[in-house]
Specification:
The protein is of the alpha/beta class. The protein is built from 7 helices and 7 strands. The strands form 2 sheets. A 5-stranded parallel sheet has the order 2-5-1-6-7, with helices on both faces. Bound molecules: adenosine-5'-diphosphate. The site of adenosine-5'-diphosphate has 15 residues, from helix 1 and helix 7. GO terms for molecular function: AMP kinase activity; ATP binding; ATP hydrolysis activity. Its EC number is 2.7.4.3.
């Protein structure tokens, strides 16, 4: 049984996943797991979508590569997809959201191609990641947090930290009852 929770921080590219994960890791000691980087480091990449410039990840290979670690608990999984991770591994799914005009500026600053920009804008407006999270996990573990202004990151991370404290307290009680 995990003594520290596993949290997915997900959302459309540019909403602020990495900013949240880094601050949360710094404040809590939970370990940041940026899947984009891990997939490359652990040879779980199948190729690249040339048009979109995004990596094609071999999901089964990736899950095998991270399973032993994640099952220990205490990981913050950072990726723009979430439904591949088994329910039994995950304690909280945070979907970061961003106002579409603000997101447009952030993605433009990244010099995304027109197609990639449009695809990501559509995904945010259609709340694709929120739906994916709600379909894949129990609704009580899925939370949506807004990240438009810089102060939002700190406020959101405070809320997640509070949630982690509550999780630890509840799980300590469960263990003591066993
Ligand atoms: P993601 O990991 O979802 O792609 P990042 O954390 O890399 O997003 O953030 C994308 C860009 O937006 C970065 O330049 C970051 O500094 C900025 N950013 C993220 N969150 C906020 C926020 N709440 N307010 C202002 N800028 C933000």
């Amino acid at each position: 049984m995990r003594t520290s929770p596993n949290i997915i921080i997900t959302g459309t590219p540019g909403v602020g996943k990495t900013s949240h994960c880094e601050l949360l890791a710094q404040n809590t000691g939970l370990k940041h797991m940026p899947i984009n980087q891990i997939a490359q480091d652990r040879d779980c990449v199948d190729g690249k979508d040339e048009e979109l410039g995004s990596l094609l990840v071999d999901e089964d290979k990736l899950l095998d590569a991270i399973e032993d670690e994640v099952k220990q608990g205490g990981y913050i999984i950072d990726w723009h997809a979430c439904d591949l991770f088994p329910k039994s591994w995950i304690d909280l799914v945070v979907v970061i959201r961003c106002d579409s005009t603000i997101l447009y500026d952030r993605l433009e600053a990244r010099k995304y191609s027109a197609k990639k920009l449009e695809e990501n804008m559509d995904a945010e407006i259609m709340q694709v990641l929120l739906e994916e999270a709600r379909d894949a996990y129990d609704e009580e573990i899925v939370v949506e947090l807004q990240s438009d202004k810089i102060e939002d990151v700190e406020g959101n991370v405070d809320r997640i930290e509070q949630w982690i404290e509550n999780w630890k307290e509840d799980n300590k009680e469960d263990r003591e009852e066993e």
